[in-house]
């Protein structure tokens, strides 16, 4: 931090890039951490700085005036949140969750059925759930909530580009969407199943969603501070003690696992509050240490010259996660390394090194079953990867050595 004060830092009309000092970013980061639980890790600060710069420019003000207005005004804060929050999602993302829902949970759940899509982004998850209910001829509805009002507006509009629907099977595309101009629109029958609501996940569980039997909150908690993630999950456990909970494949509830039981269905997991979840949660147990030195060092993949600014943002974020995770692992801070490497694997699901490092951290944290899954994911990703890219990233090791390591890791017993 440069420690520079805010007084006199530019004014309207000054080049916006000079307005956003570390001190400004620090104050905004603390405000958003307190208000919505956002964890402003170093990997997010670059994005935050650009969003603040653009907000200052759009409002024609200086940094000091902007900070005062941001602190006092909810409208300005909402505008910043709409810029900062990540709305990357897809139809039927993590298909194993939908397969598990269809095969195991929906048949045993009372009707009418209701599902909470918590952190719904642009609505693809909510409409994927609605498609599943429609196809199974199940009476039910989905409540989609998000902190971003622009994301909720997109969910309500139910209009998606050809790129956004590319993952849908042709039969689903034909059944549930209609071509409109150069995009696609969700059919009215499906839209009636989805309603939206503005909601801050670190606030109380809304009364509207308390009767939901299933909660999808995937790839959201990775952006929360640990204490705010725990607040959310504690409140869900207390307000919805019979609900199934689905988290993203890059997320874990190990830090507050004494409130939930993990239910395994093959290689897929769902969570349920333990009996007596209305009582306060116990203090999380620390995970065991010692950390083995990782055989490979994490390196950032080069970003193509034609990449967009968003691509560069993501590449920088991934590089920061890789470095920070390796530092934590080397220091024996295994739990922190697991969190960072999970985020890396979430942002780069086809990167074999992301899954490898996650597996090593999980192994060090005495979670052999989860480590085995990460090593298996690394092996699958390696089979699909460009050998030249992989060899550049592993810096002096050969792909054959990486294959040998992953094969050995997959054969180790999971206690």
TrEMBL record:
GO terms for molecular function: S-adenosylmethionine-dependent methyltransferase activity. Residues 20-265 form the CheR-type methyltransferase domain. The lineage of its organism: Bacteria, Bacillati, Actinomycetota, Actinomycetes, Micrococcales. InterPro entries: Bact_Chemotaxis_MeTrfase, CheR_C, CheR_MeTrfase, SAM-dependent_MTases_sf, TPR-like_helical_dom_sf. Gene3D superfamilies: Tetratricopeptide repeat domain, Vaccinia Virus protein VP39. It comes from Cryobacterium mannosilyticum. One of its GO terms (biological process) is methylation. Residues 280-309 are annotated as: Disordered. This is Protein-glutamate O-methyltransferase CheR. SUPFAM superfamilies: S-adenosyl-L-methionine-dependent methyltransferases. Keywords: Methyltransferase, S-adenosyl-L-methionine, Transferase. SMART domains: MeTrc.
């Amino acid at each position: 931090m440069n420690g520079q004060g805010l007084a006199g830092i530019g004014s309207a009309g000054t080049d916006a890039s000079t307005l956003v000092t570390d001190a400004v970013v620090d104050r905004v980061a603390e405000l958003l951490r307190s208000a919505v639980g956002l964890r402003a890790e170093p990997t997010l600060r670059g994005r935050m700085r650009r969003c603040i710069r653009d907000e200052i420019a759009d409002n024609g003000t200086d940094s000091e005036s902007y900070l005062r207005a941001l602190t006092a005004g909810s409208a300005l804060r909402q505008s910043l949140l709409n810029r900062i929050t990540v709305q990357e999602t897809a139809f039927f993302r993590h298909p194993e969750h939908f397969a598990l829902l269809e095969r195991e949970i929906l048949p045993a759940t009372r009707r009418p059925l209701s599902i909470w899509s918590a952190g719904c982004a642009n609505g693809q998850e909510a409409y994927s759930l609605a498609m599943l209910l429609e196809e199974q001829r199940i009476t039910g509805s989905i409540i989609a909530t998000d902190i971003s009002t622009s994301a909720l507006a997109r969910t309500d509009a139910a209009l998606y580009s050809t790129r956004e629907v590319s993952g849908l099977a042709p039969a689903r595309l034909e059944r549930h969407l209609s071509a409109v101009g150069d995009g696609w629109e969700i059919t009215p029958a499906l839209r009636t199943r989805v309603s939206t609501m503005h909601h801050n996940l670190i606030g109380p569980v809304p009364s509207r969603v308390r009767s939901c039997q299933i909660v999808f909150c995937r790839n959201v908690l990775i952006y929360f501070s640990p204490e705010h993630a725990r607040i959310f999950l504690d409140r869900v456990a207390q307000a919805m003690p019979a609900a199934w909970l689905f988290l993203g494949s890059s997320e874990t509830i190990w830090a507050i696992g004494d409130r939930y039981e993990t239910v395994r269905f093959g290689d897929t997991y769902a969570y349920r509050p333990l009996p007596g979840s209305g009582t306060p949660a116990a203090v999380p147990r620390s995970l065991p240490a010692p950390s083995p030195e990782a055989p490979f060092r994490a390196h950032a993949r080069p970003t193509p010259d034609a990449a967009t600014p968003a691509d560069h943002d993501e590449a920088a974020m991934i590089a920061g996660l890789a470095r920070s995770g390796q530092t934590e692992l080397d220091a024996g801070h295994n739990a922190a390394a697991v969190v960072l490497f999970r985020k890396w694997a979430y942002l780069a699901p086809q990167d074999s090194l992301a899954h490898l490092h996650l597996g090593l951290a999980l192994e060090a944290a005495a979670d052999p079953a989860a480590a085995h899954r990460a090593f298996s994911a690394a092996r699958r990703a390696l089979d699909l990867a460009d050998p030249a890219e992989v060899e550049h990233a592993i810096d002096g090791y050969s792909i054959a050595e990486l294959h040998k390591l992953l094969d050995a890791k997959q054969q180790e017993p999971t206690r």
